[in-house]
Amino acid sequence: MTTTPNTAPVPVHLAGISKKLAPGQPGTKRYQRQFGDALVCVRYRIQPETSRRYTTVEIVVDEKQLPRFQAPNDTPDDMIVALVIAYGETELRQRAKQAGAQWDQSRKVWLLPYGAARKLGLHGRIRAIGE
């Protein structure tokens, strides 16, 4: 936070972002040398009330492998499972839809019978069994 005379502290995170740069772009080289592959992006923030510009960096500080879902051996192929498929994975989403997957808007997952998910090689994307 910063302060100026006769004003309350202004949190930096509330400053408007004027520019967001990916690693390797001009304006990020110094931070790329400092943080290496951990650098995610550099943001330039402007605080018009105080006439200040802040440079912030986003870095990876921890990485962990998520546990893979292990279906019990007796899981029937017709049991519905919830799958995580990212929005940008268009081809994979199409394959799942062709296999009968349905989008669950409230849970933000694709629902598909376990047997179909297994055949598509989506076993590692299963997040829950139910229904």
Describe, in plain words, how this protein is organized in 3D.
The protein has a 4-stranded antiparallel beta sheet with strand order 5-6-4-7. A 3-stranded antiparallel beta sheet has the order 1-2-3. By secondary structure, the chain is an alpha+beta fold. A hairpin with a 4-residue loop joins β2 and β3 (52-59). Helices cover 17% and strands 31% of the residues.
| Helical content class | 10-25%
**Largest sheet, described in full?**
4 strands, antiparallel
Radius of gyration, in Å, reads 23 Å
Strand content: 25-35%
Tally the beta strands.
7
| Helical run tally | 3
> How confident overall, as mean pLDDT?
85
Backbone structural class: alpha+beta
Low-confidence stretches: none
Distance between the termini: 49 Å
Spatial strand order of the main sheet: 5-6-4-7
Element pattern in H and E: EHEEEHEEHE
Shape verdict: elongated
Number of domains: 2
Secondary-structure map:
Layout: E1 16-21, H1 29-35, E2 39-47, E3 52-59, E4 80-83, H2 90-98, E5 102-104, E6 109-113, H3 114-119, E7 126-130
Antiparallel strand pairs: 1-2, 2-3, 4-6, 4-7, 5-6
